[in-house]
Design brief:
single chain; globular; membrane; transmembrane
């Protein structure tokens, strides 16, 4: 008997909270636009995250085609993967009044950029899932793209200069679009 309905329900609950958190952050940016300018960098990463959340949600629905049933360890792995998206959404944009005071750029540089580490962690876990649980070949075009998509947010996190992390953001946007298009055609 398939345990997919239980897995899908739990993962969808966490993903729903993740999407809600991200959208709440975007509303917060809109609300504070009169006192603090909206910064395009966290909004760009929020766009990437939103498409990643939707892509992952869609991928969850493909799981029954891959396996009839999943072990508890695999379930925990899926939950951990989904929690990384929630953490990313929770860190990326301000949502508390004390975070809103200085604006989006200051918030992103102080706290929001930590979301880039959890995004990279999500992508690392996704890579592990693809190779070791779903048995995808490691020597494939998707693996090279994934490696780049894992490294760039980490480098952006480590960058002290706005020019550098903004440039990495601009590089990441088309990579994310390509990744999304590739996943839609698979």
């Amino acid at each position: 008997m398939s345990n997919f309905p239980v897995i899908a329900t739990i993962l969808s609950m966490i993903l729903g909270l993740s999407v809600t958190r991200l959208l709440t952050g975007l509303v917060t940016l809109f609300r504070i636009r009169h006192t603090a300018p909206i910064d395009w960098v966290p909004v760009a990463w929020a766009t990437v995250l939103f498409s990643t959340q939707l892509e992952f949600w869609w991928a969850i629905n493909q799981l029954p085609k891959l396996e009839d049933s999943f072990s508890f360890l695999e379930f925990i792995f899926f939950v951990l993967l989904t929690l990384m998206l929630f953490i990313t959404a929770s860190l990326l944009l301000p949502n508390r009044s004390e975070d809103e005071v200085d604006g989006a750029q200051v918030y992103f540089e102080k706290d929001g950029r930590f979301a880039l580490l959890s995004l990279s962690a999500f992508l690392v876990l996704g890579f592990i899932l693809n190779v070791f649980i779903l048995h995808s070949p490691m020597l494939a075009y998707w693996a090279a793209l994934d490696a780049l998509m894992i490294i760039l947010p980490t480098v952006a996190f480590l960058a002290k200069s706005r020019r550098i992390y903004a440039a990495i953001t601009l590089i990441y946007l088309p990579l994310s679009a390509i990744d999304l298009l590739v996943s839609l055609t698979d």
